[in-house]
Amino acid sequence: MKDWRVVNGLFVVTTILQGLSFGHTMAYLPLYLGTELGMAPAEVSSWTGLLYAAMMGIAFPLAPFWGALAERYSRRLVIVRSQYIEAVSHLLLVFAPDLGWVIASRLLLGLTYGSIAVVIATQAQLTPRRHVGMAISTVQAAMPVAASIGPPAGAFLIDLVGLRGMFLIDAFLAFAGGLVLTILMPDVPRSERKSSLLARTGQTLSLVWRRPALRWNFLCLFLTIGSRAVVEVYLPVRITEITLDPAPMIGLILGVTGVVTAVATVASARLVDEHGGMRWFMPLMLVGTVSTGGLAVVPDVWLMLLLSCVRALPFAAAATILTAHLTRVVAPTDQTVVLSLTPLPRNSAMFAVPIVAAALAPFGVGIAIGVGAVAYAAAGATGWLAERSTPAEIAGLRKRAEAQQPAGTAAGP
Predict the structure, then answer these.
(1) What is the pTM of this model?
(2) How confident is the model at residue 261 (pLDDT cuts 50, 70, 90)?
């Protein structure tokens, strides 16, 4: 399988399968804790945040190493371990008699993170350079597509087979995605670098730290993903507070928001310019701040639907802009390891920011969601710093590229 379009389609389909199954645990775990384990509403609110934090407590320390492992040994193995472990995690929820099994399930899910970044890095390496932007944005749109289909499908499955039956179907979907990748995914030849995994990871961390535009980009990623994580964890809980029949409304709000996010992810490619589109980042984060703050206080589910769709716009654009920005300020020879390092800010954000929200959740779910609004505001300020540092970074890249050209050879566009 050498055609990059076929590889792109394979990644899109399997990412959607993974997103469908994973998204159900995010959307319906609060209902599971209440209806299947008999927790009181206050316990559900607290344990929803704590279980998410436990999952990310496993995920974020491992984040720097998945890219180096994929580069050194096998991208395929690093990607498919995510689907297979996720399948086992869902099976634990199917048979869980108590909270201990749920904790084990979430800890296992922490071992599944980092695969999407390796998918994007692999796609970038297998795709002709002029098509890389479109290929990456298509893969990124797969998760919002899954998010748009998953919650409504989950609400239907809950009525049909119950919560545990839904998780059994999710386990099958995750396993099927892993099996398809195991059989069909082409593997990029492993690196012949002689440095150790720790040394290679350290080199990449040093590169990011030394370059201002990379530092601010990673911090923007941390803040935007942290805000998204807070909303994903607490929006279903907030919906259960203001409606008597929460499952259909959770499915509707998350499903429609997923559609808007998918469309906005593709459309946001038009914002990308030679600097990655960073000039749009701060205004979009201000929109995210206001809409997320509104989710914390509005008492009406239809207003919540509207605000959730508005919040989807900056979230979708941020993913495209920050990835495009990295491709502009990182040399092609370093893009695979730098892109594979993006799970570090992602996973650490999904651990740290929800922990803050969980600490405030006993004072009100709206206050917990407000943490997400503050994170968006901070991301806007950080994005402004990234925008200011970008021109000098790009000029430096061009100067180094010209210096490496043989005498009398043009540097290229």
Answers:
(1) 0.69
(2) confident
The domain ranges of the chain are: 4-183+206-397
> What is d(CA 236, CA 246) in angstroms, rounded to the nearest whole number?
8
pLDDT band, very low/low/confident/very high, at 138 (cuts 50, 70, 90): confident
CB of 15 within 8 A of CB of 119? yes
C-alpha 167/C-alpha 102 separation (Å) is 12
Residue 56, C-beta contacts closer than 8 angstroms, at least 6 positions apart: 110, 113, 229, 347, 348, 350, 351, 352, 354
Task: Given CATH 1.20.1250.20, say whether it is the number of domain 4-183+206-397.
Answer: yes
Across the chain, which distance is largest between two alpha carbons, in Å? 75
Instruction: Round the average pLDDT of the chain to a whole number and report it.
Output: 83
DSSP summary character for residue 196: -
How much is the pLDDT for 198? 64
pLDDT tens, position by position, 298-310? 988 899 999 999 9
Cα gap 286→269, rounded to integer Å: 20
pLDDT tens string 97-111: 999 999 999 999 989
d(CA 80, CA 176): 10
Contact of 280 with 372, CB cutoff 8 Å: no
Encode burial over 132-159: b for 16+ CB neighbours within 10 A, e otherwise.
Answer: bbebbbbbbbbbbbbbbbbbbbbbebbe
Whole-angstrom Cα distance, residue 349 to residue 115?
17
User: Can you tell me the distance from the alpha carbon of 112 to that of 189, in angstroms, rounded to the nearest whole number?
Assistant: 23
